[in-house]
TrEMBL record:
GO molecular function, one term: metal ion binding
Keywords, sorted A to Z: Hydrolase, Metal-binding, Metalloprotease, Protease, Signal, Zinc
Cofactor(s) the protein needs: Zn(2+)
Domain Peptidase M48 residues, every copy: 44-242
Coiled-coil intervals: none
Lineage: superkingdom: Bacteria
InterPro entries according to UniProt: Mito/Outer_Membr_Metalloprot, Peptidase_M48, TPR-like_helical_dom_sf
Keyword Translocase tagged: no
Signal peptide: 1-35
UniProt-recorded name of the protein: M48 family metallopeptidase
Annotated Gene Ontology cellular component terms: membrane
Record keyword Plastid present: no
UniProt cross-references to PANTHER family, sorted A to Z: METALLOENDOPEPTIDASE OMA1 (PTHR22726), METALLOENDOPEPTIDASE OMA1, MITOCHONDRIAL (PTHR22726:SF1)
Length: 465
């Protein structure tokens, strides 16, 4: 968690998000509104990122994408949706909370992996370009007919020409929608293969499509199947049910320990992103197990008092002393209670126990050391922050802390460079270049830091996704 975690979301204006809306492929029929004109609100959390990445790992391997640099990104959005852009799979927090089993999310990830493996984004862009060309040519012909009708005084010919121009645009749109529906079916089929090859059930996929179908029925909306980019949920269910039921893995369930981690993730997201009442309802459905206790501890931390939250967190640690994220929560509680030295010990334990070596936890440890204000903690704080950012360059708040640590040590050039890095990864490229230039004035020419500052100054493109 920390300053830029589930509680503190940041806008993610990166190259991966700046794609055409039509080229973003989603698991539902709705396109993410932020894909082009608005930024995507990203959630950063070590625990959730580790779990969802664990879900995705065997699927990506089955899809031939294990070494393709695919990144899972969490989006703060209550709707059940996921989409791909570039080499990234975006998953809404709403999908994570609504999914009752890991298998449901694994099915979603398998579908999105099918889009990436099939090269659907680039092919859709090509299809859009072809459709636009056809529409433009047909439109010009229609406008020519309209102009000819006007010159000749033939109103009928003029109206017909305008009809051709308008019809060409509609035909192009329908062509694209039809193409997208075909690709969705292809991704569904690919997902089935990935699940089968990894020994997992496709039942979660069917549950997801059934959820869409129920939502559509409850809305009372009549949908023209030829006016949407995805097949109707009932058609997807019909196409996949027989194939799914033939699999020997169809009735396979998720391991108990994975289900428990999934439930803890749901409780955590509900506590941080939902109302207190919504979080309480979910905790009741989780039947008073560890996930419910975790959600209750987080709710107390957010809306109660530190003493009570600390007591509940200590109880969690007694039941699972090697859970790094319980130590992380304890560190957060202690930071709120203005006990940074003790918080640093908890974050250090979380870092040591974390099998994924999350940069986020390392940064939180460095921030706690820095918050103690003790001179002897300045150097280890700087080291922890730098190491954390080397593991996770996009944890933006870490650069602010690193700049402050360098500033306190009198290393102003490095502080300016850390500030430049933060602006760079935030997408504020103009500010990044300004601070990089200021850093160069204080750094030794030709040093690694000076060269990095020059890279930022010379960059005319956004960071690679």
């Amino acid at each position: 968690m920390g300053k830029t975690t589930l509680r503190h979301l940041r806008d993610f204006s990166r190259a991966a998000c700046s794609v055409l809306i039509a080229a973003v492929v989603a698991v539902t029929g709705s396109q993410p509104a932020s894909a082009q004109n608005r930024n995507v609100p990203i959630v950063r959390d070590a625990e959730i990122e580790a779990l969802v990445s664990e879900y995705a790992r065997p699927i990506l391997k089955a899809a031939g994408l294990a070494n393709s640099g695919i990144q899972i990104v969490l989006v703060n959005d209550p709707s059940f949706n996921a989409f791909v852009a570039g080499r990234r799979i975006f998953v809404n927090t709403g999908a994570l909370v609504a999914s009752e089993t890991p298998n449901e999310i694994i099915g979603v990830l398998a579908h999105e992996a099918g889009h990436i493996a099939g090269g659907h984004q680039q092919r859709l862009r090509d299809q859009i370009a072809r459709a636009q060309t056809i529409a433009v040519v047909a439109g010009l012909l229609g406008m020519g007919a309209a102009l000819g009708g006007a010159v000749s005084g033939n109103r009928g010919a003029g109206q017909a020409g305008m009809g051709v121009a308008m019809g060409s645009s509609e035909a192009a749109r329908r062509s694209i929608l039809g193409y997208q529906r075909t690709e969705e079916v292809t991704a569904d089929r690919a997902a089935m293969r990935y699940l089968e090859s990894t020994g997992q059930s496709a039942k979660g996929m069917l549950t997801t499509f059934s959820r869409f179908q129920s939502a559509l029925a409850l809305s009372g909306t009549r949908v023209d199947p030829y006016q949407i980019s995805h097949p109707m949920p009932r058609d997807r269910i019909a196409n996949l049910t027989t194939l799914a039921e033939k699999s020997p893995h169809y009735n396979k369930t998720d391991p108990d320990n994975l289900q428990q981690r999934h439930d803890m993730m749901r409780a955590k997201i509900a506590a941080f992103t939902g109302s207190q009442a919504a979080a309480a309802r979910l905790n009741r459905r989780l039947s008073g197990g560890p996930a419910a206790a975790y959600g209750d501890a987080i709710n107390t931390f957010l809306r109660g008092n530190p003493a009570s939250a600390l007591q509940k967190t200590e109880a969690l640690l007694q039941s699972m002393p090697k859970n790094p994220y319980f130590h992380e929560l304890k560190g957060e509680v202690l930071m709120r209670a203005n006990r940074p030295a003790e918080a640093a010990k908890s974050f250090a334990a979380a870092t040591k126990l974390d099998p994924n070596r999350s940069g986020i936890l390392q940064i939180l440890y460095g921030q706690a050391l820095l918050a103690t204000g003790k001179p002897e903690n300045l150097k280890p704080a700087t080291t922890a922050l730098r190491q954390g950012l080397e593991r996770d360059r996009e944890f933006i708040n870490g650069y602010q802390s690193l700049a402050r640590a360098y500033g306190q040590a009198g290393q102003i050039g490095d502080a300016e460079l850390a500030t430049a890095e933060g602006h760079y990864y935030s997408g504020n490229y103009q500010d990044a270049m300004i601070f990089a230039a200021r850093a160069q004035q204080r750094l030794q020419r030709g040093s690694p830091s000076w060269i990095r500052a020059q890279d930022i100054i010379s960059s005319r493109q956004k960071p690679k996704s």
